[in-house]
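Re: the pair you flagged

First of the two:
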Amino acid sequence: MTIDRHALGFGGGDRAIYAANPWMTRGRLYPETSSLTRSEFQRDRDRIVHTTAFRRLKHKTQVFIGADGDHYRTRLTHTIEVAQIARALARALKLDEDLAEGVALVHDFGHTPFGHTGEDALHEVLLPFGGFDHNAQSLRIVTKLERRYAEFDGINLTWETLEGLVKHNGPLLTFDGEGTRGPVPQPILDYCQIHDLELASFASLEAQVAAIADDIAYNTHDIDDGLRAGYLTFEMLEEVPFLAGLMAEVRERYPVLEPARFTNEIMRRQITRMVEDVISVSQGRLQRVKPQSADDVRNAGLVIATFSDDMATTDRQIKEMLFRRIYRHPEIMRIRAGAAQIVTDLFKAYMKDPQLMESHYWVDHIAGLSEAARARHVGDYLAGMTDTFAIDAHNRLFDHTPDLR
C-alpha cells in the first residue's frame, strides 16, 4: 500500500524557506524508520504528549497551589496555552507548526513541584553537586529518565526539538566557549558530547516563537489568576499604561460588564496585541536578515521573534507589577517558605536513606553510588514529583507538614 504524504498535508507548500523542514531533520540520536503518516516533528509532539512527565504537569504549581481552587493555571494548562500561542505565531510566519508546538509542550518538563519555589529549594540543596536547572532537567527527562521504549532511554526526539528545548531562550555559549548566562549546566554539556546541539548558535525560529509565547501566556494568565485570587484589582492594573489603555477600550465599548467578562475582554486583547507585535517585529527582521534556510536563522546573530521596544517595556512593567503584587505578597511568601521546607526535608531524608524512594527506578542501586551521583538521583526523584505527591511523601515521613493553603 502506498500513502501520498502530500495528500496528507506533508508537502509543506506554505512553509517558508527559513522554516525547519521535518523531511530534512538532522535526525535522532538513535536512528528510527520514518513514519508513513506523520512528519518527524509530528512524531516528536505526539511522543511528548504521551509521556509521564507531561501528565504530571497537571498537578504541578504554576503560581497558585492547586488546592486554592480548580480554575487556577497549573503547569499543564500553562503549557497548553503556550502551545496554542506558539502555533498561532508559527502559522502567521509560515513555520513548521508541529515543531513550534512540540517545543512549547516540552519546555516546562523539568520544573519541580511548587513552581519556582521548588526549583530554588532544590537548587540550593544540590549546589554542592552542581545545582539544579529546570531546562537541563527537561533534557534529562526526554533523553534519559522517561523509560518507555525497548531500544533506548528517553523518547529519542529529533535534533531540532532538543535544540529548541535547550536553546529557546538563546545561545548558551559564546563562540569563544564562555557561558552567555553563567556556566552551562553539566547535564547539557554531557549530552552535547554525544549529540552536539550547537550551544553557541540561536535556535530555530520555531523555538523562538515558543519562547516568546511563554512570556505572552504567563504575563496574561498570571494577571487573570491574580484577579481571581484577589491579589490584584483593576485599579492596580492601571499602574501599567498598556493595561490601562485596554481597560479603557473595554469600558468604552461595554460600559456595564460583569467583572469576569471584563477580565476576559482585557486578557484576550492583551494576547492579541502581543502576538501581533511579535509577528510585525519578526516580519521586519526577516526582511532585513533574508534567511534562506533554518540554519541562516540560527546564525543570524540576533533573536528574530521578539517584542518591539515599546512592547518590551510593557512586558517589563507587567512583570514588575506581578512580582510586587503577587510573587512577593506576604501570603504567597508564607506558602513558598512551607513548600521550600517540604522539598528540603525530603532531599535530606532521601539522601540519608535512599530506600525511602520506593518508586524510583534506580533505588536498588543507589546505595553503592558516590554522594554526588546519589544526590543527582534524589534530585531527579524530587523534580519529578507533583505537588500532591510531595505533600503526601512529607506527611508519611514527618510529624508536621507545612500548610500550603
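Second of the two:
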Amino acid sequence: MKRKLLSFQMIFALLSVNLIPVASYADELNQSESSAVEDSSTTETTDSSSTEDSSTTTTDSSTSGTETSTTESSDTTTTPSSEAPQPPVENQAPQPVQPEVPAEPQEEAVVEDVPVVTDNGLTVQPDQEISVVKNEPTETFIRRIGEKARAVGQKNDLYASVMIAQAILETGAGGSQLSQQPYYNLFGIKGEYKGEQVVFSTQEDDGSGNMYTIDAAFKKYPSYKESFEDYAKLMKEGIDSNSEIYSGTWKTNAVSYQEATKSLTGVYATDTSYDKKLNAFIEEYNLTEYDKAQPSKTAAGIIVADTHADSDFKDYSGETFSGAEAYAEGNCTQYVYNRIVQLGGYVETTMGNGMDWGATGKANGYEVSNKPKAGTAVSFQPTVAGADGTYGHVAFVEHVYEDGSILISEMNVAGLGMVSFRVIDQNTANTLAYVTPK
C-alpha cells in the first residue's frame, strides 16, 4: 500500500513539473499578442495624423482651384506598416525629429479677360468697347459688293453703308459658306427664294445670351444682286405681322446711318451691341461713300467694283471656269475668259497676251473689227490707254454709249485679282480690236 501511494505522489509531482512551462508559454503568447495590438493601434493613430495632414493639403488644393484627388488620400490611409515593432538596439543614438515644413500656399490661377477678335477685324474688349482693324480680305469683299449695295440703296431709300456693314458682320466678310457661290446669302435670311433654299446648322440666341444649335432653311440666290434686292424688300415691306417693323432703316425716317443701325438692334438681331459693331465697320472703311448717288472714281476714272449699273449683262459671278488655268491667275486674260464663259460664250484658251487677242482671233475664225460692240473682248496694244508696255491688255465691253464711248470691265488694273470699271472715250475706242466670242 505504501509503495502504491508513493507511486501516485511521484506521478503527481512529475505532472506538476511538466504543466508549469506550458501555462507560462501560453501567458507569454497572450502578452505578446496584447503588445502587438497596442503597437498596431499606435501605428494607426500615427497614420490617422498623416491623413489629417493630407486633408489639410487637399483643402489648400481646393482653395487654389485645383481638382481634389481622392486617390492621394486613399494611398496615404493604406500606407501604415503592419510589421510588429522591433526591439530597441542598445547604444543606438537617438534620431533627431524632423520639423514639419508647411506646404507653400498655392496661388490661385488668375484668368484674365481677353478681347474677342473675329476674322473680319472686329475686336470686342471685355468692357464691351468695340473697334475694327482694317484688313485686305474685308476690303476686297467691300469692293465686290459695294456698287451692288449702292444701286439697291438708291432705289429703295436705304443706307448702302448699313447694308454693306451688315453683310460684313453676318458673313465674316464673305467667309461664310452661306454667303459664297452657289448660295450668295449675305444676310442670313431664312426661307426660300423663288423655290430655292439650302439647309445649314446655325446657332440661335434664346434672348438671354444662351446659344443653341438648330438646322434651318436659308434662301439661296442666283447672285449677290438678288440677295441685296431681297434684303431691301424685307426692309421696305416688313413681315406679315408688322409691315413697318424695319421702317427705322429708311432714309426718310433715319437722318443718319447711326439711327438706322440703332433701329435694327433688338429687332433684326438680338445682339445688344449690334449697332455699335455696324457703326465701327462703317467708320473704319468709310462706307458712307456708297451712300452717294454716284460711284467714286480714281484720278484715272477707275471704279473699283465688280458690277456697274450701266452694264448690259448680269453681274460678274467671280467663278473660275474650266480652261481658265491656261491664263495667268488674277490677270486680265483670265478675267475676260471667265466673263465670256459665264455669259455663255466661247473663246480659245490659246488667245495669248492681251495685245494678241485681235490677231489670234482672226487666225482662229472669230469676228474681229474696230467697231465697238457690247459683249466682246477688246484688245489694247502696249501703252494704249494705260495698257502694259510689254504685254498690252484685254478687257470686256459691258456697254456702248450713244457718244461712241465704251464701258469696260477688267482685272489687274486696280490690283492683281481686282475687278474694276472705266469708260474709254470714243476716239480711243475706235482704235481698239473687238473680238466677238463664238
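The radius of gyration is 44 Å.

-B.
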